[in-house]
Amino acid sequence: MKLVLKNALVFSGDGFVKNDIIINDSKISAIGVSVSSDGAERVIDCKNNYLIPGFADVHIHLREPGFSYKETIKTGTEAAAAAGYTDVCSMPNVNPVPDSVEGMKAQTDIIERDAVIKVHPFASITKGRTGGGELAPFESLKDIAVGFSDDGCGVQKEADMKAAMEKCAALGKVISAHCEVNELLKGGYIHDGEYARLHNHKGICSESEWVQIERDCRLAEETGCRYHVCHISTKESVEIIRKAKARGVCVTCETAPHYLTLCDMDIKEDGRFKMNPPLRSAQDRQALIEGLCDGTIDVIATDHAPHSKEEKSKGLEGSAMGIVGLETAFPVLYTKLVKPGIISLEKLVNLMSVKPREIFNLGSGKIAVGETADLALIDINKEFSVNPDEFKSMGRATPFEGWRLCGKNILTICEGEIVYEAI
Known about the structure:
This protein is of the alpha/beta class. Helices cover 30% and strands 22% of the residues. The strands form four sheets. Strands 1, 2, 3, 4, 5, 15, 16 and 17 form an eight-stranded mixed sheet that branches.
């Protein structure tokens, strides 16, 4: 298929340049001013909207196999495509756990059949994704897994994590770690902060996150493992990672839109404000923003974690942990960080499109001749109110419900094929 995109503001890496683009089959074959449309099967006028590398989310939950009442690979990737994502990395919180070639195949068979964009699944670090005990067979999984993670569980014993890091270092793979010390949780379910004290809720202390990050950064330094920290939420986590990077440790990290735009005092008595890690203090949020600005934080991921309506209807204490995030990520970040001048649009594209690909080897993230045509077209002026009933995801729980936002994806092209269009 030959597709021509006209009048686009094309992302160049450090800015935007008005250009036309020709896509032949899956590749970009030409970029320039007023390129010829001869022989094109379709010509799309981009109307001076912003053409960027498709977003890449390195932390989402697709729930299939095993929990398709929450989300399916089809609905999750349709939601991702609508939001401008062309690549997502799926976490191993599924059944069977991808801790073997057979367990991984149960998921990849569905991906091949139903996914509308590219899905890169994680394998688990431990057998059964328990956070301890026997390690998964890393060698047999290395060519089919984007990396290794026990997301939802922190690896509790130092010896287990060190052994896992040594294996990953030898294989050239990434460990993507959910950092949580179980003995410090003490039945908590929101941040151990002002809101919890005012409303008599059990809190989760910040130490439960950063203590394990501190340990793992030391182990990554010892082993040479490529170590990526999931969904950081505390000011201590930012500082530990900042210092580790300064020492030359091969550590990267992500945070999520909700940690950058909300704090514990924004919580309402509703399950859509419950996630793990929890919304922390305003001071933590500011430290995350500073980490974003100075490069300590490499990636913004969503931790898209859909649950059924019933599972999210039991208040803060009783509801399942997790919120959906794919369809609100860019608009929330554009409205709350780019429009006020906290970061630039170019910085946001690098955080959501380019850097995730570099860390997890998902392609170049460049719009250039010869590159795969994985693209999103963003209308930064499009205003809307967040209505979960309009989501393509089966999940509906979002703390951003009712927010008035600006900036929305209107076209997604994955490997040269249009997978979402709202022009």
